[in-house]
Amino acid sequence: MELGAEAGSLMYPTSNELPCPNRGFCSFNRFETGNIYWSPTTNAQAVWGAIFQEYGRQGYENGRFGLPTTSEFDTPDGKQVNFEGGWIRWIRNTGALITS
Q: What's the pLDDT score for residue 7?
């Protein structure tokens, strides 16, 4: 995963690797604008920005979405991250967030 180091979307790290609370075989690192999550089944996936904020409102990895299964990717109308339990999409023209 190539995110541009500190000049990229996540910016600087703010933690060492931490275990995911209440989840086995999962860890994450905090960054200024999001997190990178890792598990043996999902590999390393980054979540940041407005999608990360919505993910937090939904309970992060312990919420209904679970762990991210993709990092952020482009869609015709914005950006999206897929999770074990659905997806969160950010709409470029309006800044709206929609979820599955």
A: 52
